[in-house]
Each structure stands twice: as C-alpha cells, then as structure tokens.
Automatic annotation (TrEMBL):
CC per GO annotation: plasma membrane
Protein name as it appears in the record: Neutral amino acid transport system permease protein
Source organism (scientific name): Nodularia spumigena UHCC 0039
Compartments reported by the entry: Cell membrane
Short name of any one Pfam family annotated for the protein: BPD_transp_2
Gene, per the UniProt record: natC
Membrane topology designation: Multi-pass membrane protein
Length: 378
C-alpha cells in the first residue's frame, strides 16, 4: 500500500508539472498547444542520453529543460506571427514528428548506438542508492518541512477567501461560493498531504528509491509552483493575461506581444521538459510509445477540470485525474467482468469525456477557475 501511494504521488506530481506548463501557455496566455508532449519527450530523452555520457543528473535535467525551451522558441518564431489556429496545427505535428524521429533514430547509449525503437534502459536515476541514516533523517526532515509549508499555505489560501467575503459585500454570493470551494479543496489537499507524508516517511526510513524520487519531485513542484505564482502576479503575468483577453490592448500600450508569447511558450516548454526528466526516472526505461499524443490531452483535462489560469486548480485537476485513473483501473474490471482490457480502456475514456461535458455545462470555468478569466471561448 505504501509503495502504491508513493507511485501515485510521484505520477500526480509529474503530471501536475506537465500541466502547469500547459496552463501557463493556454490558461494565462491563450496559446492553444495540442503538442505539449513534444516538450516532455525532448526533456526525457535529453536528460537520459546526457546522463549516459557522464553528465551529472541535475545538469542533464536542466539541459533537457533548455532544449525543450529552445523548441518553444522555434515553434514561436515559426507560428506566432500567423493566425492563432496555426499554432495548434503546428504543435500537433511537432509532437508526432519528434516521437517518430526518436522511434527511427539511432541513439548514442553508453559506447554504442541503438535504434530508438528498442527504447533506452539502465540509465542513472537520482537517489537510487540507499543513503546512510543521517541523510535519510535529513530527507524526512525536508518532507516534514514541505508538509508543514503546504498546510500553512492552504490555511492562508482559505483565509484570503474568508477575508474577501467580509470586505467585498457587493459580491457576497460569489465570494461565499469561492470560500466553500476553497474550503473543500483545502480539506482534500490537507488529507492528501498527510497521506503522502506518512507513506513518504515510511518509504524513506526503510529506504525505497521511489520514495526518494517522490520527495525530489515534490520539492521541484513546490519550487516551480511558488515561482509561477510570483510570476503570474507580476507585471509580466498581467501582460500575459491581457494578451489572452485581447492582444490589441497590450499592443496599444507598447508591449511586444510576440515576444511575450514566445517567452510563455518557452517557459511552459521548459517546465514540461523537467516533467519529462522525472517521467523518465520514474519509468526506469523509456520507449517512443511512452510519449503518445494522449498525454497532451490528459494535461488538457487536468487544466480544464481544475480551472484554466489557476495553478492550484491545475494541481487539483491532476489529483482528480489520477484518483479517477487509479479507481477505475482497480474497480472497473471487478464490475464489468465481461469486458476486455481494450473495452475497459475505451469505457474509462468515455466516462471522463462525459464528466468533462457535464462540467462544461455546469461550471465551464473549471472547479477553481473564474468566469471573468475564461479562455475556452477563444
């Protein structure tokens, strides 16, 4: 049970990172990216191949993020001066193009070259060796600090909505709904934090490499979330929102809209590249088929569920998605015993599609999104 919780926590964290990159591009800037998986693919393969050449894992992951950001620069210069729909068309093609190139390319692995079709295995993974007791205690201390900061941040987030309810009486109904939503989400996140903390402490004490990877991914997610929250509230972030709503307005104010879009595409791509590095480390062996276009649309589901233009909502969307995924994988085969595995997979996709349809009717802005910041109509 502990190992399974660690696996779910790591998977959710990785795809929360992946979806945060997409949320920056679409939720905050209005850029429609249907090939987000391309950034993850480059990040994963760059990290793995560089680590085979003796490059330290941290440097390899950073280089993977830089290569993914460079892809965003290329796509931006190729499409962002054209109509908006060109970006969505090009990104779909680029995502599949990179996967097919990797599938048919000879890759430098150790002292030889192998076909990409055979995948890449036996590459270095961070924290794979059992550390001494002093280091393990330090890792448990980091996890404890992260849990405390998370719970404190949730409390402040709920308190902010509570204060808004008192001070903004003109929008009392909407503020009350926001407070109820935040309270519910806060309770869910608090319970998850406690569950992850307990399983993480157990996994770190009896050291399991996956627990070390979980801690590292959580730390990276916390850092990127913190920095993104600062960025989107800065003047830079306000320009992105203005571009999303009507790019003619920031143009009239003398802003270089094209360059802001390129920056958003690059930064979102770099975050997805980091997610790709963790994805590769979690799998321990990567193949081109691990990077199917479906993963892009999984990220879209996460962003839409939680609410576009809301980083906490994106993380909530990732939690809901993986909770649904784990629950249906566990219980559907027991309920529908006469269906094959392929039929069950199709049924799971159909159900989450139905959930999205209901959500679009009931709350088109997502669970934590705001109607005034809705970008679905663009």
């Amino acid at each position: 049970m502990v190992e399974y919780l660690i696996f779910l926590a790591t998977s959710t964290t990785i795809f929360a990172l992946f979806a945060l990159g997409l949320n920056l591009q679409w939720g905050y800037t209005g850029l429609i990216n249907f090939g987000h998986i391309a950034f993850m693919t480059l990040g994963a393969y760059t990290t793995v191949l560089l680590s085979f050449q003796g490059v330290p894992l941290f440097v390899s992951a950073v280089m993977g993020a830089i290569v993914a950001a460079f892809l965003g620069l290329i796509i931006g210069f190729a499409t962002l001066r054209l109509r908006e729909d060109y970006l969505s068309i090009v990104t779909i093609g680029v995502g599949e193009l990179i996967r097919l190139v990797v599938n048919n390319q000879e890759l430098p692995v150790k002292d030889s070259w192998i076909s990409g079709t055979f995948g890449v295995q036996s590459y270095p993974i961070p924290l794979s060796t059992t550390p001494n007791l002093f280091v393990r205690v330090g890792m448990m201390g980091l996890l404890t600090l992260l849990a405390i900061l998370t719970l404190f941040g949730l409390w402040r987030w709920i308190r902010t909505a509570q204060k808004s309810l008192v001070t903004d009486l003109g929008k009392k109904l909407s503020r009350k709904q926001e407070l109820v939503s935040r309270l519910g989400v806060g309770i869910i996140f608090a319970l998850l934090t406690v569950a992850i903390y307990i399983s993480g402490v157990i996994g770190l004490y009896d050291y399991k490499p996956k627990a070390g990877l979980m801690l590292l991914s959580l730390l990276v997610l916390a850092f990127i979330f913190w920095r993104l929250e600062i960025l989107v509230r800065s003047p830079w972030g306000r320009v992105l929102k203005a571009i999303r709503e009507d790019e003619e307005v920031p143009k009239a104010l003398g802003k270089n809209v094209f360059w802001y879009k390129v920056q958003s595409l690059m930064l979102g791509g770099a975050i997805a590249g980091i997610a790709g590095a963790f994805f590769a480390w979690q799998l321990s062996a990567i193949y081109p088929d691990n990077f199917q276009p479906q993963l892009t649309f999984d990220a879209w589901i996460m962003v839409i569920l939680g609410g576009s233009g809301n980083n906490i909502g994106t993380i909530l969307g990732a939690v809901i998605f993986f909770t649904y995924d784990a629950a249906t994988r566990e219980f559907l085969p027991k309920i529908f015993t006469n269906l094959s595995s392929d039929q069950l997979g199709a049924f799971r996709i159909m159900v989450i599609g139905l959930i999205l349809m209901i959500l679009m009717v009931w709350r088109p802005q997502g669970i934590l999104g705001k109607k005034e910041e809705l970008t679905l109509g663009k």
